[in-house]
């Protein structure tokens, strides 16, 4: 039987699946080799250090999350459905959600920097148009909801046996109404 050729993509895919099922802390050379069904040597040939491999996994996680959110949003209710899709992600993929939320972000020294790096630049324009508020108010509303959703999603992803999604969605809606009221009040 010929030897299987191990590729870097196979290594990264196996590491991603381990992270998805067990968390990033389980992404270790031996676990990857076991998942692929090979010795540790091919893994070491692609991974000079684990930091580089973990960065490749984070990139794959980010790509997965982008696709997940896009596939779960309602284009007629972009703002609400995006927040709900992140909560759903936290429920269905808690390890990937934690990796996405907790990975190190370089070059961030303000909440505006965070917003610029994490948000789609057109989202504030869509929100502004939908709610008839300024783009600046829409950005602030969106930032508030991003911060809130990240926080409540993190809580949701680490609780056992788990908070009901109905309770989480209700709380998310309460926060949205409060932030919207503030945005509209500031618009006057």
Structure commentary:
This is TetR/AcrR family transcriptional regulator. The protein has about 190 residues and is mainly alpha-helical. It is built from ten helices and no strands. It has helices spanning about 10-20, 30-35, 40-45, 50-70, 80-90, 95-100, 110-120, 125-130, 135-160, 165-185. α1 (about 10-20) packs across α4 (about 50-70) and α5 (about 80-90) runs antiparallel to α10 (about 165-185). The longest helix has 24 residues, at about 135-160. It is elongated. The chain starts with 7 loop residues before the first helix and ends with a helix. The mean pLDDT is about 90.
Structure described in brief:
By secondary structure, this protein is mostly helical.
């Amino acid at each position: 039987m010929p030897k299987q050729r191990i590729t870097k993509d196979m290594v990264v895919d196996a590491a991603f699946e381990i992270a998805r099922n067990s968390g990033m802390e389980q992404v270790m050379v031996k676990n990857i080799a076991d998942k692929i069904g090979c010795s540790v040597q091919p893994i070491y040939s692609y991974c000079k250090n684990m930091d580089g491999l973990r960065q490749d996994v984070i990139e794959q996680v980010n790509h997965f999350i982008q696709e997940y959110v896009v596939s779960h949003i309602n284009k007629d209710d972009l703002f609400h459905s995006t927040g709900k899709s992140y909560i759903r992600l936290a429920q269905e993929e808690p390890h990937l959600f934690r990796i996405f939320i907790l990975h190190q972000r370089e070059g961030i020294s303000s909440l505006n920097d965070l917003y610029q790096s994490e948000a789609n630049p057109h989202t504030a324009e869509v929100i502004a148009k939908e709610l008839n508020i300024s783009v600046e108010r829409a950005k602030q509303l969106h930032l508030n909801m991003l911060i809130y959703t990240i926080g409540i999603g993190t809580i949701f992803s680490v609780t056992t046996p788990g908070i009901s999604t109905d309770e989480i969605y209700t709380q998310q809606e309460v926060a949205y109404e409060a932030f919207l009221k503030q945005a509209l009040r500031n618009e006057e």
